[in-house]
Amino acid sequence: MSPLSPALTGALIGAVIGITGYIGLRVLANRIETMPDAKDPQTSAKAIRIAALIDLVIFPVAGFFVGPMLVK
């Protein structure tokens, strides 16, 4: 028997995906913020940073619930 339940495994995989997405979106937000020709870069960067935080929370939670569904 594995020490990790399917729910915990799904949450860990979701966390890895969420962290990767978080880092990528934060890098994108920083690039948009420094673009000289962008229209209102502060607002766009803020929206992307909020999406990054949501990404960081949603993927582990979704993995927690989807993991057991894939095992059956």
What key phrases describe this protein's structure?
72 residues, mainly alpha, 2 helices, rod-shaped
How would you characterize the overall build of this protein?
With 72 residues, the protein is mainly α. The protein has one domain. Helices cover 82% and strands 0% of the residues. The protein contains two helices and no strands. Helix 1 runs antiparallel to helix 2. The longest helix is centred in the last third of the chain and has 31 residues. The protein is rod-shaped and about 50 Å long. The chain starts with 5 loop residues before the first helix and ends with a helix. 15% of the residues are buried.
Helix segment tally: 2
SSE succession: HH
Determine the mean pLDDT: 91
> How many strands appear in the DSSP assignment?
0
Give the fraction of residues assigned to helices. over 70%
* Overall spatial form: rod-shaped
The assigned structural class equals mainly alpha
What is the domain tally? 1
CA(first)-CA(last) distance = 16 Å
Global Rg: 16 Å
Strand content: under 5%
For the largest beta-sheet, the strand count, sense and barrel status come to:
none
Unreliable stretches:
none
